[in-house]
Specification:
There is one protein chain. Strand 3 and strand 4 form a beta hairpin. The protein folds into three domains: 95 residues, Phosphorylase Kinase, domain 1 (2-Layer Sandwich), CATH 3.30.200; 178 residues, Orthogonal Bundle (Transferase(Phosphotransferase), domain 1), CATH 1.10.510.10; 152 residues, no CATH class. The chain has ten helices and 22 strands. The protein is α+β, with helices and mostly antiparallel strands and 516 residues long. The strands form four sheets. An eleven-stranded antiparallel β-sheet has the order 12-13-14-15-16-17-18-19-20-21-22, with no helix packed on it. Strands 1, 2, 3, 4, 5 and 6 form a six-stranded antiparallel β-sheet that branches.
Protein backbone atom coordinates (compact mmCIF):
# COMPACT_ATOMS: atom_id res chain seq x y z
CA UNK A 1 0.00 0.00 0.00
CA UNK A 2 0.96 3.62 -0.04
CA UNK A 3 1.92 5.78 2.90
CA UNK A 4 -0.78 5.92 5.63
CA UNK A 5 -1.60 9.57 6.27
CA UNK A 6 -1.80 10.35 10.02
CA UNK A 7 -4.86 11.84 11.71
CA UNK A 8 -6.75 12.87 8.60
CA UNK A 9 -10.05 14.66 8.98
CA UNK A 10 -13.25 13.51 7.34
CA UNK A 11 -13.07 13.56 3.55
CA UNK A 12 -15.67 15.60 1.73
CA UNK A 13 -16.40 12.55 -0.39
CA UNK A 14 -17.47 10.68 2.75
CA UNK A 15 -19.50 13.51 4.28
CA UNK A 16 -22.84 12.10 3.13
CA UNK A 17 -21.95 8.62 4.34
CA UNK A 18 -20.64 9.78 7.71
CA UNK A 19 -23.21 12.48 8.46
CA UNK A 20 -24.63 10.35 11.28
CA UNK A 21 -21.19 9.44 12.62
CA UNK A 22 -18.96 11.25 15.13
CA UNK A 23 -15.19 11.07 15.53
CA UNK A 24 -14.44 9.18 18.74
CA UNK A 25 -10.71 8.48 18.37
CA UNK A 26 -7.69 9.37 16.25
CA UNK A 27 -4.96 6.78 15.83
CA UNK A 28 -1.64 7.35 14.11
CA UNK A 29 -2.90 5.80 10.87
CA UNK A 30 -6.70 6.13 10.89
CA UNK A 31 -9.63 8.04 12.36
CA UNK A 32 -12.38 6.12 14.17
CA UNK A 33 -16.03 7.10 13.64
CA UNK A 34 -19.10 5.85 15.49
CA UNK A 35 -22.81 6.01 14.74
CA UNK A 36 -24.42 7.07 18.01
CA UNK A 37 -27.74 5.39 17.24
CA UNK A 38 -26.52 1.99 16.01
CA UNK A 39 -23.07 2.11 17.71
CA UNK A 40 -21.51 0.97 14.42
CA UNK A 41 -17.82 1.89 14.18
CA UNK A 42 -15.88 2.62 10.99
CA UNK A 43 -12.21 3.35 10.43
CA UNK A 44 -11.22 6.06 7.96
CA UNK A 45 -7.89 5.32 6.26
CA UNK A 46 -6.13 7.35 3.60
CA UNK A 47 -3.03 6.43 1.58
CA UNK A 48 -0.84 8.64 -0.56
CA UNK A 49 0.96 7.57 -3.75
CA UNK A 50 3.39 9.45 -5.97
CA UNK A 51 3.49 6.67 -8.56
CA UNK A 52 0.33 6.25 -10.67
CA UNK A 53 0.97 2.59 -11.48
CA UNK A 54 1.33 1.70 -7.79
CA UNK A 55 -1.83 3.62 -7.04
CA UNK A 56 -3.87 1.85 -9.73
CA UNK A 57 -2.50 -1.53 -8.68
CA UNK A 58 -3.48 -0.91 -5.05
CA UNK A 59 -7.01 0.12 -6.04
CA UNK A 60 -7.39 -2.84 -8.36
CA UNK A 61 -6.16 -5.32 -5.74
CA UNK A 62 -8.79 -4.18 -3.25
CA UNK A 63 -11.80 -4.81 -5.49
CA UNK A 64 -12.24 -8.60 -5.15
CA UNK A 65 -11.49 -8.54 -1.39
CA UNK A 66 -14.33 -6.33 -0.22
CA UNK A 67 -16.65 -9.16 0.79
CA UNK A 68 -14.30 -11.89 2.07
CA UNK A 69 -15.61 -12.82 5.51
CA UNK A 70 -12.16 -13.27 7.08
CA UNK A 71 -10.88 -9.88 5.90
CA UNK A 72 -12.09 -6.70 7.60
CA UNK A 73 -14.76 -5.38 5.27
CA UNK A 74 -14.12 -2.31 3.16
CA UNK A 75 -17.46 -0.51 3.15
CA UNK A 76 -16.48 2.27 0.80
CA UNK A 77 -13.49 3.59 -1.11
CA UNK A 78 -12.74 6.82 -2.92
CA UNK A 79 -9.83 7.96 -5.06
CA UNK A 80 -8.47 11.47 -5.56
CA UNK A 81 -5.81 13.07 -7.72
CA UNK A 82 -3.95 16.14 -6.43
CA UNK A 83 -1.83 18.54 -8.45
CA UNK A 84 0.51 20.56 -6.25
CA UNK A 85 3.73 22.45 -7.05
CA UNK A 86 4.16 20.97 -10.52
CA UNK A 87 3.75 17.42 -9.21
CA UNK A 88 0.90 14.97 -9.00
CA UNK A 89 0.07 12.57 -6.22
CA UNK A 90 -2.81 10.16 -5.75
CA UNK A 91 -4.91 9.41 -2.71
CA UNK A 92 -6.89 6.30 -1.78
CA UNK A 93 -9.47 6.68 0.98
CA UNK A 94 -11.15 3.76 2.72
CA UNK A 95 -13.99 3.25 5.19
CA UNK A 96 -13.27 -0.05 6.92
CA UNK A 97 -14.97 -2.27 9.47
CA UNK A 98 -13.63 -1.69 12.99
CA UNK A 99 -12.78 -4.97 14.77
CA UNK A 100 -13.79 -5.88 18.30
CA UNK A 101 -10.23 -6.36 19.51
CA UNK A 102 -6.79 -7.58 18.50
CA UNK A 103 -5.61 -11.12 19.19
CA UNK A 104 -3.26 -9.78 21.88
CA UNK A 105 -6.17 -8.05 23.63
CA UNK A 106 -8.25 -11.19 23.32
CA UNK A 107 -5.57 -13.31 25.02
CA UNK A 108 -5.16 -10.75 27.78
CA UNK A 109 -8.92 -10.63 28.44
CA UNK A 110 -9.20 -14.39 28.19
CA UNK A 111 -6.94 -15.00 31.16
CA UNK A 112 -5.50 -18.32 32.23
CA UNK A 113 -7.43 -20.88 30.21
CA UNK A 114 -6.31 -23.75 28.01
CA UNK A 115 -6.69 -23.21 24.28
CA UNK A 116 -8.79 -26.11 22.99
CA UNK A 117 -8.16 -27.97 19.75
CA UNK A 118 -11.51 -26.68 18.45
CA UNK A 119 -10.38 -23.09 19.04
CA UNK A 120 -7.04 -23.74 17.32
CA UNK A 121 -8.74 -25.34 14.32
CA UNK A 122 -11.05 -22.32 14.05
CA UNK A 123 -8.15 -19.87 14.27
CA UNK A 124 -6.21 -21.75 11.59
CA UNK A 125 -9.29 -22.01 9.38
CA UNK A 126 -9.92 -18.25 9.52
CA UNK A 127 -6.34 -17.22 8.83
CA UNK A 128 -5.81 -19.76 6.05
CA UNK A 129 -9.00 -18.65 4.28
CA UNK A 130 -7.93 -15.00 4.52
CA UNK A 131 -4.44 -15.75 3.21
CA UNK A 132 -5.82 -17.72 0.27
CA UNK A 133 -7.84 -14.67 -0.71
CA UNK A 134 -4.75 -12.44 -0.65
CA UNK A 135 -2.38 -12.39 -3.60
CA UNK A 136 0.36 -11.17 -1.28
CA UNK A 137 0.50 -13.09 1.99
CA UNK A 138 0.77 -11.39 5.39
CA UNK A 139 2.92 -12.15 8.40
CA UNK A 140 0.66 -12.94 11.36
CA UNK A 141 1.37 -11.42 14.76
CA UNK A 142 -0.56 -10.79 17.94
CA UNK A 143 -1.37 -7.21 16.94
CA UNK A 144 -2.43 -7.57 13.30
CA UNK A 145 -4.93 -10.40 13.76
CA UNK A 146 -8.39 -9.14 14.62
CA UNK A 147 -11.57 -10.50 16.15
CA UNK A 148 -14.74 -9.68 14.22
CA UNK A 149 -18.39 -10.47 14.79
CA UNK A 150 -19.33 -14.08 15.63
CA UNK A 151 -15.74 -14.73 16.79
CA UNK A 152 -14.40 -14.77 13.24
CA UNK A 153 -10.69 -13.91 13.06
CA UNK A 154 -9.80 -11.41 10.36
CA UNK A 155 -6.91 -9.63 8.66
CA UNK A 156 -6.74 -6.17 7.14
CA UNK A 157 -6.41 -6.78 3.43
CA UNK A 158 -4.31 -3.64 2.90
CA UNK A 159 -1.98 -3.86 5.92
CA UNK A 160 1.45 -5.28 5.10
CA UNK A 161 3.42 -3.23 7.63
CA UNK A 162 4.31 -6.14 9.92
CA UNK A 163 7.48 -8.14 9.16
CA UNK A 164 9.02 -9.78 12.27
CA UNK A 165 12.58 -9.51 10.97
CA UNK A 166 12.25 -5.71 10.68
CA UNK A 167 11.87 -5.48 14.46
CA UNK A 168 14.43 -8.11 15.36
CA UNK A 169 17.00 -7.03 17.93
CA UNK A 170 14.81 -4.27 19.38
CA UNK A 171 13.85 -6.17 22.53
CA UNK A 172 10.32 -6.77 21.24
CA UNK A 173 8.94 -10.17 22.32
CA UNK A 174 6.94 -12.69 20.30
CA UNK A 175 8.21 -11.79 16.81
CA UNK A 176 9.03 -15.28 15.48
CA UNK A 177 10.81 -14.82 12.12
CA UNK A 178 11.30 -17.85 9.88
CA UNK A 179 14.81 -19.36 9.60
CA UNK A 180 15.24 -18.01 6.06
CA UNK A 181 14.40 -14.47 7.21
CA UNK A 182 17.77 -14.28 8.95
CA UNK A 183 19.61 -15.04 5.67
CA UNK A 184 22.22 -17.02 7.60
CA UNK A 185 21.93 -20.19 5.53
CA UNK A 186 22.08 -19.59 1.73
CA UNK A 187 20.55 -23.02 1.12
CA UNK A 188 17.24 -21.80 2.58
CA UNK A 189 15.39 -20.16 -0.31
CA UNK A 190 13.07 -17.35 0.72
CA UNK A 191 9.37 -17.54 -0.13
CA UNK A 192 6.95 -14.99 1.33
CA UNK A 193 4.18 -17.53 1.69
CA UNK A 194 6.36 -20.18 3.32
CA UNK A 195 7.89 -17.58 5.65
CA UNK A 196 4.46 -16.37 6.79
CA UNK A 197 3.36 -19.97 7.33
CA UNK A 198 6.27 -20.50 9.71
CA UNK A 199 5.56 -17.31 11.66
CA UNK A 200 1.90 -18.26 12.03
CA UNK A 201 2.92 -21.76 13.17
CA UNK A 202 5.10 -20.25 15.89
CA UNK A 203 2.21 -18.08 17.04
CA UNK A 204 0.00 -21.17 17.29
CA UNK A 205 2.67 -23.04 19.22
CA UNK A 206 3.02 -20.08 21.58
CA UNK A 207 -0.75 -19.88 22.16
CA UNK A 208 -1.20 -23.61 22.67
CA UNK A 209 1.68 -24.14 25.10
CA UNK A 210 2.12 -20.71 26.68
CA UNK A 211 -1.42 -19.61 27.40
CA UNK A 212 -1.77 -21.80 30.49
CA UNK A 213 0.94 -19.91 32.35
CA UNK A 214 0.04 -17.06 34.68
CA UNK A 215 1.48 -14.69 32.12
CA UNK A 216 2.94 -15.04 28.64
CA UNK A 217 6.49 -15.23 29.89
CA UNK A 218 9.54 -15.60 27.70
CA UNK A 219 10.13 -19.06 29.18
CA UNK A 220 6.74 -20.34 28.06
CA UNK A 221 6.65 -18.42 24.80
CA UNK A 222 8.62 -19.43 21.71
CA UNK A 223 11.20 -16.67 22.21
CA UNK A 224 13.42 -19.12 24.05
CA UNK A 225 13.74 -21.17 20.84
CA UNK A 226 15.77 -18.38 19.20
CA UNK A 227 19.52 -18.28 19.91
CA UNK A 228 21.93 -15.87 18.16
CA UNK A 229 19.75 -15.28 15.10
CA UNK A 230 19.07 -18.98 14.66
CA UNK A 231 16.49 -21.43 15.94
CA UNK A 232 17.54 -24.19 18.32
CA UNK A 233 16.51 -27.42 16.59
CA UNK A 234 16.55 -29.52 19.75
CA UNK A 235 14.36 -27.11 21.70
CA UNK A 236 11.98 -26.85 18.77
CA UNK A 237 11.69 -30.64 18.57
CA UNK A 238 10.97 -30.80 22.31
CA UNK A 239 8.31 -28.11 22.05
CA UNK A 240 6.57 -29.83 19.12
CA UNK A 241 6.66 -33.16 21.00
CA UNK A 242 4.93 -31.40 23.91
CA UNK A 243 2.24 -30.22 21.48
CA UNK A 244 1.68 -33.80 20.30
CA UNK A 245 1.05 -34.86 23.91
CA UNK A 246 -1.66 -32.25 24.44
CA UNK A 247 -3.50 -32.10 21.09
CA UNK A 248 -4.90 -34.44 18.41
CA UNK A 249 -2.40 -35.92 15.98
CA UNK A 250 -3.95 -34.25 12.93
CA UNK A 251 -3.67 -30.81 14.52
CA UNK A 252 -0.12 -31.54 15.68
CA UNK A 253 0.82 -32.69 12.17
CA UNK A 254 -0.35 -29.34 10.79
CA UNK A 255 1.80 -27.43 13.28
CA UNK A 256 4.81 -29.67 12.67
CA UNK A 257 4.53 -29.16 8.90
CA UNK A 258 4.22 -25.40 9.33
CA UNK A 259 7.42 -25.38 11.39
CA UNK A 260 9.68 -27.29 9.01
CA UNK A 261 13.07 -25.57 8.91
CA UNK A 262 13.48 -26.12 5.18
CA UNK A 263 10.97 -23.94 3.27
CA UNK A 264 10.86 -26.55 0.50
CA UNK A 265 9.50 -29.08 3.00
CA UNK A 266 7.09 -26.64 4.63
CA UNK A 267 3.39 -26.73 3.78
CA UNK A 268 1.48 -24.00 1.94
CA UNK A 269 -1.85 -22.50 2.96
CA UNK A 270 -3.57 -24.65 0.35
CA UNK A 271 -1.95 -27.75 1.89
CA UNK A 272 -3.29 -26.71 5.30
CA UNK A 273 -6.78 -26.15 3.96
CA UNK A 274 -6.74 -29.58 2.31
CA UNK A 275 -5.86 -31.17 5.66
CA UNK A 276 -8.63 -29.21 7.37
CA UNK A 277 -11.12 -30.48 4.79
CA UNK A 278 -10.03 -34.08 5.30
CA UNK A 279 -10.40 -33.63 9.06
CA UNK A 280 -13.79 -31.92 8.52
CA UNK A 281 -12.47 -28.83 10.30
CA UNK A 282 -12.78 -26.47 7.32
CA UNK A 283 -15.78 -24.38 8.41
CA UNK A 284 -15.10 -20.98 6.83
CA UNK A 285 -16.57 -20.90 3.33
CA UNK A 286 -17.95 -18.28 1.00
CA UNK A 287 -21.09 -19.86 -0.42
CA UNK A 288 -22.44 -16.86 -2.29
CA UNK A 289 -21.99 -18.25 -5.79
CA UNK A 290 -22.71 -21.93 -5.27
CA UNK A 291 -26.02 -21.72 -7.16
CA UNK A 292 -24.32 -20.06 -10.09
CA UNK A 293 -21.48 -22.53 -10.43
CA UNK A 294 -23.47 -25.74 -10.15
CA UNK A 295 -25.05 -25.30 -13.58
CA UNK A 296 -21.83 -23.94 -15.08
CA UNK A 297 -19.49 -26.74 -13.97
CA UNK A 298 -19.05 -27.99 -17.51
CA UNK A 299 -17.43 -24.68 -18.40
CA UNK A 300 -14.41 -25.38 -16.20
CA UNK A 301 -12.16 -23.05 -18.14
CA UNK A 302 -14.44 -20.05 -17.68
CA UNK A 303 -12.70 -16.85 -16.73
CA UNK A 304 -15.51 -16.19 -14.28
CA UNK A 305 -14.28 -18.89 -11.95
CA UNK A 306 -11.27 -16.75 -11.09
CA UNK A 307 -9.43 -17.53 -7.87
CA UNK A 308 -10.95 -20.83 -6.63
CA UNK A 309 -10.27 -19.87 -3.02
CA UNK A 310 -12.68 -16.94 -3.14
CA UNK A 311 -15.79 -19.11 -3.40
CA UNK A 312 -15.43 -22.67 -2.05
CA UNK A 313 -18.48 -24.72 -2.96
CA UNK A 314 -18.43 -27.20 -0.10
CA UNK A 315 -21.45 -26.07 1.89
CA UNK A 316 -24.87 -27.45 2.70
CA UNK A 317 -26.63 -24.25 3.72
CA UNK A 318 -27.71 -23.34 0.21
CA UNK A 319 -29.33 -26.73 -0.30
CA UNK A 320 -32.07 -25.50 2.06
CA UNK A 321 -33.06 -22.60 -0.19
CA UNK A 322 -36.39 -23.45 -1.84
CA UNK A 323 -36.57 -22.38 -5.50
CA UNK A 324 -39.49 -22.54 -7.92
CA UNK A 325 -38.97 -25.50 -10.26
CA UNK A 326 -41.75 -24.21 -12.52
CA UNK A 327 -39.73 -21.19 -13.63
CA UNK A 328 -36.16 -20.48 -14.55
CA UNK A 329 -35.53 -16.83 -13.91
CA UNK A 330 -33.19 -16.46 -16.87
CA UNK A 331 -35.15 -14.83 -19.71
CA UNK A 332 -38.31 -14.96 -17.59
CA UNK A 333 -40.91 -12.23 -17.83
CA UNK A 334 -42.93 -12.89 -14.69
CA UNK A 335 -42.66 -14.38 -11.22
CA UNK A 336 -45.01 -17.25 -10.23
CA UNK A 337 -47.88 -16.31 -7.99
CA UNK A 338 -49.32 -17.82 -4.83
CA UNK A 339 -50.47 -20.93 -6.68
CA UNK A 340 -46.85 -22.13 -6.54
CA UNK A 341 -46.70 -22.51 -2.76
CA UNK A 342 -44.32 -25.29 -1.67
CA UNK A 343 -45.67 -28.52 -0.23
CA UNK A 344 -44.89 -29.66 3.28
CA UNK A 345 -43.09 -32.92 2.59
CA UNK A 346 -39.50 -33.56 3.61
CA UNK A 347 -38.09 -30.01 3.19
CA UNK A 348 -34.49 -31.00 2.46
CA UNK A 349 -35.47 -33.62 -0.12
CA UNK A 350 -38.03 -31.29 -1.69
CA UNK A 351 -35.64 -28.35 -1.84
CA UNK A 352 -32.88 -30.47 -3.33
CA UNK A 353 -35.24 -31.73 -6.04
CA UNK A 354 -36.35 -28.17 -6.76
CA UNK A 355 -32.76 -26.99 -6.96
CA UNK A 356 -31.81 -29.81 -9.35
CA UNK A 357 -34.90 -29.14 -11.47
CA UNK A 358 -34.17 -25.42 -11.66
CA UNK A 359 -30.54 -26.00 -12.61
CA UNK A 360 -31.53 -28.60 -15.22
CA UNK A 361 -33.90 -26.14 -16.89
CA UNK A 362 -31.23 -23.46 -16.81
CA UNK A 363 -28.79 -25.80 -18.56
CA UNK A 364 -31.33 -26.33 -21.33
CA UNK A 365 -31.71 -22.57 -21.78
CA UNK A 366 -27.93 -22.06 -21.69
CA UNK A 367 -27.55 -24.54 -24.55
CA UNK A 368 -29.98 -22.56 -26.75
CA UNK A 369 -27.61 -19.94 -28.08
CA UNK A 370 -29.01 -17.57 -30.74
CA UNK A 371 -28.21 -18.98 -34.17
CA UNK A 372 -27.10 -15.63 -35.55
CA UNK A 373 -24.64 -15.25 -32.73
CA UNK A 374 -23.18 -18.69 -33.37
CA UNK A 375 -22.90 -18.03 -37.08
CA UNK A 376 -21.01 -14.78 -36.55
CA UNK A 377 -18.88 -15.92 -33.63
CA UNK A 378 -15.97 -16.72 -35.92
CA UNK A 379 -15.68 -12.97 -36.47
CA UNK A 380 -15.02 -12.30 -32.79
CA UNK A 381 -11.64 -11.24 -31.46
CA UNK A 382 -9.96 -10.54 -28.15
CA UNK A 383 -8.99 -6.96 -27.53
CA UNK A 384 -9.61 -3.72 -25.70
CA UNK A 385 -12.29 -1.03 -26.03
CA UNK A 386 -11.89 2.46 -24.57
CA UNK A 387 -14.95 4.56 -23.61
CA UNK A 388 -15.31 8.31 -23.39
CA UNK A 389 -16.02 8.34 -19.64
CA UNK A 390 -12.66 6.70 -18.88
CA UNK A 391 -13.93 3.15 -18.54
CA UNK A 392 -12.34 0.44 -20.67
CA UNK A 393 -13.08 -3.17 -21.58
CA UNK A 394 -10.76 -6.12 -22.09
CA UNK A 395 -12.11 -9.36 -23.48
CA UNK A 396 -13.99 -10.82 -26.41
CA UNK A 397 -15.25 -8.36 -29.02
CA UNK A 398 -17.64 -8.82 -31.93
CA UNK A 399 -19.02 -6.07 -34.16
CA UNK A 400 -16.88 -3.67 -32.11
CA UNK A 401 -19.07 -4.37 -29.07
CA UNK A 402 -18.55 -6.25 -25.85
CA UNK A 403 -19.65 -9.78 -26.76
CA UNK A 404 -18.64 -12.92 -24.92
CA UNK A 405 -16.50 -12.97 -21.80
CA UNK A 406 -14.54 -10.02 -20.56
CA UNK A 407 -13.90 -7.44 -17.87
CA UNK A 408 -15.23 -3.89 -17.78
CA UNK A 409 -12.96 -1.59 -15.76
CA UNK A 410 -13.88 1.72 -14.14
CA UNK A 411 -11.88 4.83 -14.99
CA UNK A 412 -9.65 4.21 -11.93
CA UNK A 413 -8.89 0.64 -13.12
CA UNK A 414 -11.09 -1.06 -10.51
CA UNK A 415 -13.20 -3.93 -11.82
CA UNK A 416 -16.76 -2.85 -12.52
CA UNK A 417 -18.01 -6.09 -14.06
CA UNK A 418 -16.39 -9.43 -14.82
CA UNK A 419 -18.49 -11.84 -16.83
CA UNK A 420 -20.53 -12.39 -19.96
CA UNK A 421 -21.74 -9.73 -22.42
CA UNK A 422 -24.17 -9.62 -25.32
CA UNK A 423 -24.24 -6.67 -27.72
CA UNK A 424 -22.53 -4.38 -25.25
CA UNK A 425 -24.71 -5.28 -22.25
CA UNK A 426 -24.29 -7.45 -19.16
CA UNK A 427 -26.00 -10.65 -20.23
CA UNK A 428 -25.42 -14.14 -18.85
CA UNK A 429 -23.44 -14.84 -15.69
CA UNK A 430 -21.11 -12.30 -14.12
CA UNK A 431 -19.88 -10.42 -11.08
CA UNK A 432 -20.62 -6.71 -10.68
CA UNK A 433 -18.97 -4.44 -8.13
CA UNK A 434 -20.31 -1.14 -6.80
CA UNK A 435 -17.37 1.21 -6.35
CA UNK A 436 -19.28 3.79 -4.33
CA UNK A 437 -22.08 2.18 -2.27
CA UNK A 438 -24.15 3.90 0.38
CA UNK A 439 -23.92 2.46 3.90
CA UNK A 440 -26.93 0.51 5.12
CA UNK A 441 -27.95 0.36 8.78
CA UNK A 442 -26.17 -2.55 10.48
CA UNK A 443 -29.14 -3.35 12.73
CA UNK A 444 -31.72 -3.27 9.96
CA UNK A 445 -35.28 -4.43 10.67
CA UNK A 446 -36.16 -6.70 7.76
CA UNK A 447 -39.63 -5.12 7.56
CA UNK A 448 -37.94 -1.77 6.94
CA UNK A 449 -35.63 -3.05 4.20
CA UNK A 450 -35.27 -0.08 1.81
CA UNK A 451 -34.53 -2.14 -1.28
CA UNK A 452 -31.33 -2.70 -3.22
CA UNK A 453 -30.93 0.94 -4.35
CA UNK A 454 -27.23 1.88 -3.98
CA UNK A 455 -26.65 -0.12 -0.77
CA UNK A 456 -25.10 -3.12 -2.49
CA UNK A 457 -21.37 -3.86 -2.71
CA UNK A 458 -21.23 -6.92 -4.93
CA UNK A 459 -23.68 -8.91 -7.06
CA UNK A 460 -22.77 -12.29 -8.48
CA UNK A 461 -25.28 -14.06 -10.66
CA UNK A 462 -27.32 -13.87 -13.80
CA UNK A 463 -27.95 -10.75 -15.88
CA UNK A 464 -30.34 -9.92 -18.68
CA UNK A 465 -29.86 -6.71 -20.68
CA UNK A 466 -27.78 -4.99 -18.01
CA UNK A 467 -30.17 -5.91 -15.18
CA UNK A 468 -29.81 -8.36 -12.30
CA UNK A 469 -32.19 -10.99 -13.54
CA UNK A 470 -32.18 -14.68 -12.63
CA UNK A 471 -30.49 -16.48 -9.76
CA UNK A 472 -27.80 -14.64 -7.89
CA UNK A 473 -26.38 -13.37 -4.64
CA UNK A 474 -25.97 -9.80 -3.49
CA UNK A 475 -23.91 -8.45 -0.60
CA UNK A 476 -24.85 -5.18 1.03
CA UNK A 477 -22.62 -2.57 2.63
CA UNK A 478 -23.58 -3.71 6.15
CA UNK A 479 -22.47 -7.31 5.32
CA UNK A 480 -26.03 -8.60 4.96
CA UNK A 481 -26.45 -11.03 2.05
CA UNK A 482 -29.36 -12.22 -0.09
CA UNK A 483 -29.22 -15.37 -2.23
CA UNK A 484 -32.08 -16.29 -4.52
CA UNK A 485 -34.20 -14.94 -7.35
CA UNK A 486 -33.95 -11.54 -9.03
CA UNK A 487 -36.09 -9.86 -11.66
CA UNK A 488 -35.14 -6.58 -13.33
CA UNK A 489 -32.82 -5.40 -10.55
CA UNK A 490 -35.18 -6.41 -7.75
CA UNK A 491 -35.28 -9.33 -5.33
CA UNK A 492 -38.10 -11.51 -6.63
CA UNK A 493 -38.89 -15.17 -6.00
CA UNK A 494 -37.57 -17.62 -3.47
CA UNK A 495 -34.54 -16.46 -1.56
CA UNK A 496 -32.65 -16.32 1.71
CA UNK A 497 -31.65 -13.07 3.40
CA UNK A 498 -28.92 -13.46 6.04
CA UNK A 499 -28.04 -10.58 8.33
CA UNK A 500 -24.52 -9.95 9.59
CA UNK A 501 -25.46 -10.96 13.12
CA UNK A 502 -26.90 -14.31 12.11
CA UNK A 503 -30.66 -13.77 11.64
CA UNK A 504 -31.88 -15.56 8.51
CA UNK A 505 -35.13 -15.03 6.59
CA UNK A 506 -36.18 -17.67 4.06
CA UNK A 507 -39.26 -17.10 1.94
CA UNK A 508 -40.81 -15.52 -1.11
CA UNK A 509 -39.75 -12.01 -2.10
CA UNK A 510 -41.62 -9.58 -4.30
CA UNK A 511 -40.23 -6.18 -5.34
CA UNK A 512 -37.52 -6.37 -2.62
CA UNK A 513 -40.07 -7.16 0.12
CA UNK A 514 -40.41 -10.42 2.06
CA UNK A 515 -44.01 -11.52 1.43
CA UNK A 516 -44.20 -14.88 3.23
Amino acid sequence: MGIPQPKQTQSQLFEETLKQFDIIDKQSTYVLFQNNSTMQKLEYWTFKYHDEDSFKRAVKDLTPLRTCQTLLQIFKQNTLTHDEFCSTFYELQLLVEHPIQSFAEYLQNRGQHDYSSKELYHLIDCVVFAQLNLDKKQYIGFNNLWQGENDVWKLRSFDYSYRPIDFWGKQIPYLYPAPEDFKQDPSLKYSLEKSTVFTFGMLLLHVALGITSAQLSIAKSCDSLYQNNTIDHQRMTTRIAEFYKNYPTTLADIIANMLQFDPNQRCTYQDIQNILKEAQQCKITDSTNLLLKMHKQSNSQSKLQGNPYKSPVETSRLMNIPLYPEQTFLNSQSIPGNNSLPNHTNPLQSNNQQLISTISQQQQIDNKEPQTLLQNWSQSRSGKLQFGDGRYYEGEIMNEQMNGKGVLYNSDSTVGYDGEFLNGQFHGVGVQFNENPDIMDTFLNINEFPGILNYWVKYEGEFSQNKKHGIGSITFSNSDCYIGGFQKDQMNGRGTYTQKYGQTYIGFWECNKLKY
